């Protein structure tokens, strides 16, 4: 669909105003928020990722595009969040220590919230102690960790070890995700599950908590 391509292009050029206008227009045309995210916003962001990788663009340009994408997500979030009062479970989520990437984590949190989970978002650069404190305070069913850097993936293991040391490991299910993370890595560090994207993180949590 043409408008989804336009949304992707507006993310690529980092035009927040245009993203906002186009997302609103797409909704009026009856396109679902999921398609707008997948085929519009994320499609644009993946072009940015490729260009960043090839050193064709640098951090400031990536940030401008990331902000444009977040603008679109802001509009879509309330539409994805379910109107149901029934809370299926509580989830503490955060990007691990040393890592500032939060677009994917926010998307995962948004989808989980939309699926009926209560989210306690600890933000970015979250040290293990902060995860532990949040478990003690909120008694969540699930702890979710996100990492986008190969150098910060190891913090997931460090965090699990600290949770274990505090005697809290059997109180929560732990899930991990992020571009460099794999199913194999998740098993290796003793997580309960790995999700490749925001949609599968909902399936994963439903499965782990045995809810539908
Ligand atoms: Co960064 N960055 N970045 N960056 N950045 C990557 C990750 C990189 C792959 C780019 C590249 O070189 N190809 C590379 C990492 C290389 C590596 O480690 N192997 C990289 C680098 C090197 C860096 C810096 C070191 C650059 C520098 O300063 N020289 C620096 C590090 C800062 C830090 O964290 N300490 C840095 C900074 C930044 C920005 C601040 C500019 C910006 C982040 C803005 C923000 O997040 N607010 C940024 C961005 C945007 C990217 C890319 C381009 C895009 C990431 C993104 O948002 N993708 C990225 C390249 C890429 O990934 N192709 C890159 C869209 C998002 C929806 O996908 O995050 O994968 P993703 O999330 C998915 C899944 O992974 C999964 O579901 C999500 C939705 O489908 N998922 C989970 C994620 N978390 C999950 C948790 C779950 C389950 C699923 O359960 C809990």
TrEMBL record:
Gene Ontology molecular functions: cobalamin binding; cobalt ion binding; methionine synthase activity
Top-level division of the source organism's lineage: Bacteria
Family annotation (Pfam families): B12-binding (PF02310), B12-binding_2 (PF02607)
B12-binding domain boundaries: 88-212
Record flagged with keyword NADP: no
Any Gene Ontology CC annotation: cytosol
Boundaries of every B12-binding N-terminal domain copy: 1-88
Keyword vocabulary terms for this entry: Cobalt, Metal-binding
SUPFAM superfamilies in the record: Cobalamin (vitamin B12)-binding domain (SSF52242), Methionine synthase domain (SSF47644)
Cited InterPro entries: Cbl-bd_cap (IPR003759), Cobalamin-bd (IPR006158), Cobalamin-bd_sf (IPR036724), Corrinoid_p (IPR012741), Met_Synthase/Corrinoid (IPR050554), Meth_synthase_dom (IPR036594)
One GO term (biological process): methanogenesis
Family: Belongs to the methylamine corrinoid protein family.
Cross-referenced PANTHER family: METHIONINE SYNTHASE (PTHR45833:SF1)
Official protein name in the record: Cobalamin-binding protein
